[in-house]
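Minutes, project huddle
Topic: does the predicted pose make sense with 3,4-dihydroxyphenylalanine bound?
PN asked that the exact inputs be recorded in the minutes so nobody has to dig through chat later. Recorded below.
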Amino acid sequence: MKEQLEAIRKGALESIGGAVDAAHLESLRVKYLGKKGELTAVLKQMGGLSAELRPVIGQLANEVRASVEKAIEAQAAVVSERALAARLEAETLDVTIPGRKAAQGHKHPMYAVLDDIKEIFIGMGFEIFDGPEIEQAEYNFTKLNAPENHPSRDWTDTFYLTEDSSVLLRSQTSPVQIRAMETHGVPIRMISPGRVYRKDEVDATHSPMFHQVEGLVVDKGITMADLKGTLNTIIREIYGPDTQTRFRPHHFPFTEPSCEMDIQCHKCGGTGCSTCKGEGWIELLGAGMVHPKVLRNCGVDPEEYSGFAFGFGLDRLALGQYKISDMRLIFENDIRFLEQF
Ligand code: DAH
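Predicted holo structure (tokens), as shared on screen:
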């Protein structure tokens, strides 16, 4: 039995020393020290020993048990240290690898142009007003003095939202003039940029949704000279100090007199080219002196106050500024296109 015990000790210490992980070690503990283990099996035979031999073998068995337990403990420390080292190795982060750069967006070219325009107007004492895109016909047409049979009221031109033609997608930013005079009162100097909607076929220069900037100035003693002076100043801020302009008579229901303003073609300088369709001039905006009826519709006395108003298309201005040939491009939101600006 003595040899048996020594053999167990030898075998146990050897295999424990070679245990590679905690599970392996646990299986060895069961193998040698467990209830059905080798050491227990030997001890079970002790009943058959003589009285002299029993304490000797008993002591040896205890020693073997103790040395096996100690070896397991020592190896457990080795194994767990090795496991930690392996884990640290596996989870190493290389902090020197360059990070992935987050893509950064930027302002849409049209809004960049709008920001410049706002700056110029704010510098001249204008306030920025906002108005609803879903508008009442009352504001989009009636209070702006558009007669009941005006062609722009037609269902083929305007997106109506109710059968009775009372609610629509605004076809112009001009209703914000009315709202501004009603809420803010006069005197007033304001612009109102925003989306407008018309039943236009889509092509290179038309879209059913586009952007306008409306302007309104009402005060005592405002004349056509103020209109021309203000618009000339602004156009020269945008297009340069030598930009030539001209005013042509026109008709709008909400202004009297009304005009359109052209600028000399910035591409050919007035000799005629494809940009100005050979005209030498480019139509830029509609304007006029606010019709007395419109002032009265907003509770303003036209005997006391006068004013001018104007409206222009923002999209075409941006197209011109960035030399973009097709309006559809600026609404498609194709990143490959937008990234160029
Ligand atoms: N609302 C006009 C349009 O959509 C533009 C316009 C013309 C606005 C003359 C005005 C104005 O305020 O006075 O064509």
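Observations noted during the meeting:
- Strands lie at 127-128, 134-136, 167-169, 188-197, 209-219, 245-252, 255-264, 281-290, 306-313.
- The chain is about 40% helix and 20% strand.
No decisions taken; revisit at the next huddle.
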